[in-house]
Amino acid sequence: MNIDIFCRVIDNYGDIGVCWRLAKELMLSEHSVTIISDHLEVFAKIFHEVNPSKSFQICCFKGKTVRLYKWQEQIENYMPGDMVIEAFACNIPEFFIDRFTDKTIWINLEYLSAEDWIEGCHKLPSLQNRGLKKFFFFPGFTSKTGGINFNSSTLRLDKKELRSHVCRQLGLNLALSDRFWFFIFCYETPNIKTLIQCVLKHHPETVLLLPESRSTEYLKNTGSLSELKNEFPDAVFHEYPMVEQSEFDKILGSTDLNLVRGEDSICQAMLYGIPFIWHIYEQDNNAHLDKLEAMLDKFCKFTTDETAYVIRNSIIKFNEKISSQDILCANFNEFMLEYDTICEAAEKWSDYLYANKNLSTNLLKFYYDLTERKF
Ligand code: TRH
């Protein structure tokens, strides 16, 4: 089947990150994918084959090809695919809609949420001009949603092997494999430093993986990084440039703790079954806090009330703008003390998410159900 994915980059890497991950999974299921995006520079950071100066190109990934157009208001002779995915209500160009046939399935891929209301809206059609229908598709955490966006080939690889691979890729000494590993990719907040201090009190020889990112810049610009290096001389603070998304996934899977941010990185972190702290992307009217609470409600069902309390306190407090550093420190300390129990909960949560199948599988099933073809 031919599938088109339209994506506008609002900010950061998550918009194109979600689309690229979905595209890869669809490509590996033998479908022919075209991505149309307005910000190829951002795409090139997570997929190095992309040449941002080209308006059209064909790129290769694991022996499959993907067609890539720079977003434009006209693409001569381009006919829409069988399924057209409009990511995050990005408003696909009129000329393109004009070429839809009565067989075109138009999907509005929404943002991920753990809130219950999405189950009621998932798969609903919304009527458009000319009698066309656009179907809402919501990634989510239950079987009544579109599931989580993940690549079946990269997840659940053996952690030891991943660690050796990451050591080679990032130029880390293999002897560091036995230490506690902490990956940090979040937004700007003083709470990062407090969390690092707490982790390092428990594991002074931690390897901290610090990708080129807003959080690493923040740690450097505020002087926190040099202070931490002085305070914890046995820790390894490893800064490195951004890597391709498939390598990013392997790094997440090789650690003992992930501090991650937008919907794409948090999903991968959860699927590895490793303890995580979610620094959620901030939205107007604190809408993000409802999303965070909703996710915690679901995740915490996989552990005892005591551990749930510790997890909630640590993650919610991390996301508060003005947090007392003493309280945060006490919460993170509890988190580290409960670490083994949190690992068990994270593993169960990951198993549960896997059982709901991934976004690509659920989307294809929806397409085939709609068009009454066999899956
Ligand atoms: O980058 P994010 O903060 O993205 C977003 C956007 O702001 C978006 O508008 C918003 O809707 C969304 O968050 C919730 O965080 P996210 O989603 O985690 O995406 C990061 C992507 O960057 C992810 O696909 C992984 C990728 N990445 C790499 O491929 N290599 C790297 O080295 C790093 C650090 C990230």
Low-confidence stretches: none
Approximately what portion of the residues adopt beta-strand conformation? Answer: 15-25%
Q: How do the helices and strands follow one another from N- to C-terminus?
A: EHEHEEEHEHEEHEHEHHEHEHEHHHHH
The average pLDDT value, as a whole number, equals 95
Note the gap between the termini: 12 Å
CATH superfamily of the largest domain: Glycogen Phosphorylase B
Q: What is the number of beta strands?
A: 13
How would you write the strand order of the largest sheet?
3-4-2-1-5-6-8-7
Ligand set: 2'-deoxy-thymidine-beta-L-rhamnose
Apparent shape: globular
Description:
This protein is globular. It has helices at 14-28, 40-46, 94-98, 117-121, 159-170, 191-202, 214-221, 224-231, 245-253, 263-271, 287-299, 305-319, 325-337, 339-355, 359-370, and strands spanning 2-7, 32-37, 56-61, 64-70, 83-87, 105-109, 125-127, 133-137, 181-184, 207-211, 236-240, 257-260, 276-278. The strands form two sheets. It has an eight-stranded mixed sheet, with helices on one face. Strands 11-10-9-12-13 form a five-stranded parallel sheet. With 375 residues, it is of the alpha/beta class. The protein folds into two domains: 2-148 and 357-371, Rossmann fold; 152-355, Glycogen Phosphorylase B (Rossmann fold, 3-Layer(aba) Sandwich), CATH 3.40.50.2000. It binds 2'-deoxy-thymidine-beta-L-rhamnose. Residues 10-15, 17, 46, 111, 185, 211, 213, 242-245, 248, 261-265, 281 line the site of 2'-deoxy-thymidine-beta-L-rhamnose (TRH).
